[in-house]
Amino acid sequence: MSIPSTDKNPTFNLHGAAALITGASRGLGRALAEALAEAGARVVLVARASPELDAAVAAIRSRGGEAYAIVADLGDKRSIHTITGRASGLVGPIDLLINNASTLGATPLRLLLDTECEDLERTLAVNLVGPFRLTKVVAGSMALRGRGVVVNISSDAATEAYPEWGGYAVSKAALDHLTRVWASELGELGVRMIAVDPGEMATAMHAAALPEADPDTLPRPETVAASILSMIGDPSRAPTGARLSAPQWGEAGR
Amino acid sequence: MNPATRPRGRRDDVRLLAIDRRSGETLDGAVDDLCGLLRPGDLLIVNDAATLPASLHGASLDGSEIELRLAGRGERGRWSAVIFGAGDWRTPTEERGAAPLLGVGERLVFGDDGESLRARVVAVDPRHPRLVEVEFEVDEEELWAGLYRLGAPVQYAYLDGALDLWSVQSVFAGPPWAFEMPSAGRPLSWGVLQRLVSQGVEVARITHAAGLSSTGDPRLDRLLPLPERYAIPGSTVAAIARTKAVGGRVIAVGTTVIRALEGSFICHGELRPGAGVTDFLLSEETELAVVDGVITGMHGPGESHRHLLEAFASPALLDRAWAHAVEAGYLAHELGDIALLADFDGGALRAASGPA
Description:
The complex is a heterodimer.
Chain A: E1 18-22, H1 27-38, E2 42-47, H2 51-62, E3 66-71, H3 80-91, E4 96-99, H4 117-145, E5 148-153, H5 166-186, E6 191-197, H6 204-209, H7 221-232, E7 243-245, H8 246-253
Parallel strand pairs in A: 1-2, 1-4, 2-3, 4-5, 5-6, 6-7
Chain B: E1 15-20, E2 26-30, H1 34-37, E3 43-47, E4 50-51, E5 55-60, E6 65-73, E7 78-84, E8 107-110, E9 117-124, E10 131-136, H2 140-150, E11 176-178, H3 190-198, E12 202-208, H4 218-221, E13 228-232, H5 234-245, E14 250-253, H6 255-268, E15 274-278, E16 293-297, H7 304-309, H8 315-327, E17 338-342, H9 348-352
Parallel strand pairs in B: 1-17, 3-12, 3-14, 4-11, 14-16
Antiparallel strand pairs in B: 1-2, 5-6, 5-8, 6-7, 7-10, 8-9, 9-10, 12-13, 13-15, 16-17
């Protein structure tokens, strides 16, 4: 599509879309990759090296989906063009980017006064600068093509000041606002940017942050992934710049 | 003219020389000034190919050190490529060690054991022994992983330091098709593109697999560019028709855009959306059917690219513009300054430059 795009929030068809999901070896990232592949997207799963990453790709392929694994550390700037180049070579220019990878920082979580500066820097590198770098590389092509969605996975810690969640919380708050500024700059060009608070889920990350929580009482990542896919496909209820809550979206959908 | 020896921090810092292709009038400006030089109804067409890490250092099985520069993607997993001898980018290609003569069936290995990428020579071009076709001995997924793990962008001997992959991408790059950077588009920032769009200039794209620019061997260079693949979206064909209908100018950003558009036109007798491979060669004899103007790097007398520009303006006019650019300190080569060669309304450049 030649710019300017006429529609600020064009509809988005997942079938055949080239999707890149970070932190995709487990938890919400894996559930998103599986759900996207199920919907006919060609998915590229990015994560650090692990048997879980290979298992996630194998599981999608065994169900007839198209999936590829890329091992990378999003805190390392040299990895960014490698990720986007390899992914675009395999599935075409990226139509959907889900910035899901994140780090809690040092666990057990601790007070800001007890947080090492280097830990905060590392948290910001992975949770904020990594998504910025990836988005910067793919969103220009999205804007030129007049097609693209970027989903930044946030947290309620971005809006609530919980003690001991400091570095993680500020990284997510910044990611939320980054989403809004991207949206203000790219909204006219057909690129939709949304931030999603997935709510609490039964994931390994949740267990690392709150070891005392009972996973059986928490929503499953598959349920949350279904809500996020629904947002991606619904530009009128999930317009560019929006920050959405998956639990509320799920409630409204019932 | 001196080369630009490093990427400039801000893309907008690159200088822009506007040249009226009829009168020869010139205007010294910056990339930002495109906004004043293009009019509502004009169409800017960019090549959105991302640049590959197309240079692989390795060895043949007898241990001869080589650099393989990928130059084109053929059918059935074959790639055309040029073989270089020992040495790295700091040595000008014409002074590099002799490239080993490789026969069909020769095996090549890149990278260390365990992490290596292996290829086999499957054809040697009868016109030049350094021009070969290779097949990598891995599947598609492993190939992309290997290229990005072991490859580097093609480098240039005039550089201060090696170029990283991010330094050879435009801000709108998508499909990883280009073997060398489509350099005319590199200085365009989104700030400039958005201002152009807001003032009624359309921006559209093609994808063209820009190949190698030179090899250091004149006999081999005469075979360049090789046939290159391209894709033209339907939206771009429609934008060109709209532009022509209102008397706007179609401005190609780089000669690869011209090659795709005029190549498609010559092949089909009309501009058609879709993908293809073109062996179209732009020259002073070309009657341009689609493109009215071009944004290009600085190319002087004797350079191969200079002949391409003669499709737009006479040699004498280009010589005068070149002399002015040298005098005014413009920078040349892949990271250098750019020129906009187009028709301007009478006196438009004089007016834009303010009182003399």
